Task: structure prediction
Amino acid sequence: MAKSLQGRFQVTVLEEGKEFKPFSLPVKKMASLRKTGVFFDERLIRAVLPNMLVEKTSDMVMVRGIGVGGTTTLATGNAVRYDGALKEIGINLDEEFEELYKELPITTDHQKHWTSTTRDMFDIFKEMDLDPIVTPKFMNAAKCVECGHCAIGCPTGAKWDTRKLIEEAVSNGAELVTGFKVTDLEISNGSVRAVHGRHNGRRATYKSDVVVLAAGGLGTPVILENSGIECQKSLFVDPVLCVAGPLEGFRQDRQLLMPFISQQDGYILSPYMDYLSYFFNKDWRLPMENIVSIMIKLSDEEVGSVNRRRIDKSLTAADKIKMDEAVEKSREILERIGVQRKDQFLGTLNAGHPGGMLPLTNKEKDTLHNPFLPDNLYISDATLLPKSMGNPPILTIMALAKNISSKIK
Ligand SMILES: Cc1cc2nc3c(=O)[nH]c(=O)nc-3n(C[C@H](O)[C@H](O)[C@H](O)COP(=O)(O)OP(=O)(O)OC[C@H]3O[C@@H](n4cnc5c(N)ncnc54)[C@H](O)[C@@H]3O)c2cc1C
Result:
């Protein structure tokens, strides 16, 4: 959005966090501290990965990125087009996706570098008719060293994230203000006049002609609420649960995260080494090289909310039925890999795809602008998505942003 609008407008990006910093301790060294009991709460992860904000609901750990590049800096680089729900309400983003495929390094070339572990897992998925597809990734595959650190700071720069777009916007004249937490908007006569917030702790204001909120599925609804605009209680988060087990020397830790995915009805399955569970879940006591782990990512019911005090989200009865089915499927995969059921264990229920609290509907298919919003206020993040995906949303959010930026211009 910032890159696209800069030039036609003078863009100022107000970003709560700072520049991205990768994991600050060697993973092995940190692993040796697990015995001491210092890792008793997932929220402590920020001490070693400052851009990762972890919050808790009654039964889920919510993860998001606070900093330049947002949550894309923590992403595993999956670049999946998933716009079925948008198509259903009449929004066609074919052109925008075409442009993104030309502009961004999206590739499946990483398959050439797969380890034998990844290839074996892929074959098992095929044998089980799970129709695995090689995950298209935002990356330069030639630079990937299969270290498995995609989500904690790619050490070689193989993974692409949206910091590159911010850099381009800034080199074209946009201003990037970090450490600025937007709190609310000043609205009068149906227009936004200014953006209020705290800059490095002090109250500050920016006057504005046009405002685009892109604080993510948990950030944008709070700013709207503080500005007197209510969202819906239709938060989705795509809950994640890993099913894992012991396998001596399997070395899934030396693998690109989520190298392939199997898209089932209502969830996806993919190999994934779960760092949060590894450090904070007492059932994950083995060395990382001896753990095999399958991720379930669920498309959850759109029931939940966030406000300035708390996140209200838990699995519904329907979510639990779907999750049980996915766990059973994952247990079967692990058995085929060689892990007996009695040795299998679960990870921590977590989620990192929040959105949906001001969903687009058929009525806004031509404007992509909710009529309850002031005329010069747009939203451009996962808050707009009409349904949970249970799939990687970045590419689809970017296609939407492209379309919205054309409308703003
Ligand atoms: C571990 C992990 C791995 C993932 N892997 C993938 C993947 O491989 N592929 C994929 O498609 N998706 C992935 N996702 C999900 C994806 O990263 C997010 O869904 C996506 O980035 C959401 O985009 P967004 O623009 O809505 O919000 P975000 O990317 O979260 O951006 C919000 C921005 O707003 C800033 N902000 C928030 N509040 C304020 C405020 N009050 N004032 C100022 N700034 C504020 C934040 O710092 C951030 O920069 C992953 C998520 C996680 C947690």
The first strand starts at residue 12 and ends at 15. The chain has two domains: 2-18+162-234+356-408, 27-66+105-159+239-351. The chain has ten helices and 20 strands.
